[in-house]
Amino acid sequence: MLSALTFRRRFSDLTEQEVLALAIASEEDDARIYRGFAERIRSSYPASAKVFEGMAEEEDQHRRRLIDLHRARFGEVIPLIRREHVAGFYARRPVWLSASLSLETIRGEARAMEQLAQTFYTRAAQRTQDATTRKLLGDLAAAEAGHERHAEGLEATHLPEETRSAEDKTARRQFVLTWVQPGLAGLMDGSVSTLAPIFATAFATQDTWTTFLVGTAASVGAGISMGFTEAAHDDGVLSGRGSPLKRGLASGVMTTLGGMGHALPYLIPDFWTATTIAIAVVFVELWAIAWIQNRYMETPFLRAALQVVVGGALVFAAGALIGGG
Question: CA–CA distance from 184 to each of 8, 41, 230, 267, 292 (Å)?
């Protein structure tokens, strides 16, 4: 890491030709990123894919103009200098990261790309004392601002309100199917199913450490089981529920967290203090489940709360009775 930083050039040390070469390379990279975004979402969001294709074409036009300027001022040979060669230069996400980004995040990333470039060139122009370099950097800042305005125009052409609304609904539905639904099932299973063994152990032994160990084992075991079950029973191809790895991860992690929430208080040595906190945590978990059902599954809040509270109370009562008996 230190050696990589040592060999990076300061922007203030670059010549005018190197600044122009850097701009050319940056425009080329941005066009590739936009095309990567378009390819990533083409099958699900064709209208948004057209927007990113148009933005890539705009970057290509600016790159060609910059190359023509370089040819006129410095000749045919363009120095090899890229963003990663310059200290403090704005960063871009690698294209392969787009596979893990939602549609709205990709849109936000594109807006941030243009804004960061404009800000960088504007500030760089303000720092230079050379009139020609100052004009060049100012022109680049104006070009980046133009990109953002052009993107807005492309969205108006290819992404009218009704189309964007439909794509947003599709993206939200995919998010719910891939992350929220399996995560909610895991949270419900972890929060409710572990109540009986944890509180049965607590009231039977009144030993907080033993209760914590049982709770941890129950939570982790349930998380592993739920994760593998979710990932294995549906590959997502026909159901459209998305990656089985993502769904399994969401289900497994939330199941474990749901159980560990009321197991962790038993790290407190005093039994009744730990039990009181654990019961309070259970109410918070049940409220969170009801809120998620209402927020993402469109279940009326009172009905969702009644379902989880009644179910949780029955399981808690079973554990307490078994442990107390």
Answer: 47, 26, 12, 26, 7
Tell me, rounded to whole angstroms, the distance of Cα 218 from its chain centroid: 30
Residue 247, pLDDT score: 82
Chain centre distance of CA 121? 28
Distance CA 135, CA 145 (A): 15
Determine the Cα–Cα distance for residues 307 and 94; give it in Å rounded to an integer.
Answer: 45
Contact 195, 262 (CB under 8 A): yes
Structural contact between residues 137 and 124, judged by C-beta atoms closer than 8 angstroms:
yes
How confident is the prediction for the chain on average, in pLDDT? 77
Task: Give, in order, the Cα–Cα distances in Å from 137 to each of 9, 72, 128, 140, 306.
Answer: 17, 17, 9, 5, 62
Q: Which CATH number fits the domain 2-159, given the four candidates 3.40.50.1970, 3.40.50.150, 2.160.20.80, 1.20.1260.10?
A: 1.20.1260.10
> Which among 193, 188, 217, 213 is positioned nearest to 202, based on CA atoms?
213
DSSP-H helix ranges across the chain? 2-6, 16-41, 46-74, 103-127, 131-158, 161-175, 181-188, 195-205, 208-233, 244-261, 271-296, 301-324
Q: Is the separation of the CB atoms in 34 and 97 below 8 Å?
A: no
Reported as a pLDDT band with limits 50, 70 and 90, residue 158 is: very low
Contact 167, 48 (CB under 8 A): yes
Residue 35 above 50 pLDDT?
yes
Burial environment of residue 173 by CB neighbours within 10 A (0 to 12, 13 to 18, 19 or more): exposed
Cα torsion 197, 200, 201, 205 to 10°: value is -170
User: How many other C-beta atoms lie within 10 A of the C-beta of residue 264?
Assistant: 17
Token pair 């108006």 in the structure block, residue: 156
Residue spans per domain, the chain: 2-159, 174-324
**Cα 100 from chain centroid (whole Å):** 7
Nearest to 307 by CA among 296, 322, 292, 323: 292
pLDDT at 111 over 80: no
